[in-house]
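[Q] Does anyone have a clean structure-token version of this?
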Amino acid sequence: MAKLLDAHLHLWDPWERHHDWLDDVPELRRRFVPEDVDAGSYELAGAIFVQADCRDGEALEEVRWVQDVGPPLVHGIVAYAPVHLGADAAPQLEILAGEPLVVGVRRLLQGGTDAAILGRGLREGVSLLADLELTFDICVRHDQLAAAAELVAACPRTSFVLDHLGKPPVATGALDPWRTDIARLASFENVTCKLSGLGTEAATGWTSADVRPYLEHAIDVFGPARCMIGSDWPLMTLAGTMEQWFDAVSEVLTDEDRHAVLCGTVCAFYGVEP
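[A] Here you go.
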């Protein structure tokens, strides 16, 4: 089986840091560490840890905890950073860039306003990442993709990756206007796409057929060299297993696409080794 490096995985310990959103998801309010990961028949070559939305003041502590408990599974860290503060975020970004496993940053944008995405502060903060060789994970919902494209256009030197295909409305089966909006994002060569997170956007009891049109379209507009597989573990356990998701993605890949999507793209984008 081809090497698989998971581009989107979370770890947390709610007894050490405050993840307030877990109050609404009690089944996930426990410690998740590498030893808990179950990829079924797949053998993980590694994973990228993505910040798990602890309180802002605990973000650096989260990074250092993951650097302690994450290896050898975790090959890179996407940390929280207050990029919305613009130039005022520079000191924290410089600290993060000096951490050995930090490869990128994320500030959740989903559920926010278009005005926040298009604001001067966010543009300035995200633009700082290029000189620090840090990437930016875009986490938005499908109705925010047009605004996300404007952010990308304003930051041409920054490398972006779209989390969870922009969270399309899989539960309803609707493809438009998501299909057009994600194609617009794909037209920017500095944007890559994570094939992740659709299980929790789908209806209960989802199958590969439910997510296939979204996966195929993303691969078509981005190309396999700009697509990477991610589990969104452990959130995805609310809607299925890691193996089920990896199977769903694998089913839409040709033999030629497989290496890039399963391992090559994530390694090239985040600058990590398999």
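[Q] Thanks! Anything notable?
[A] Residues 156 and 190 are 7 Å apart (CA to CA).
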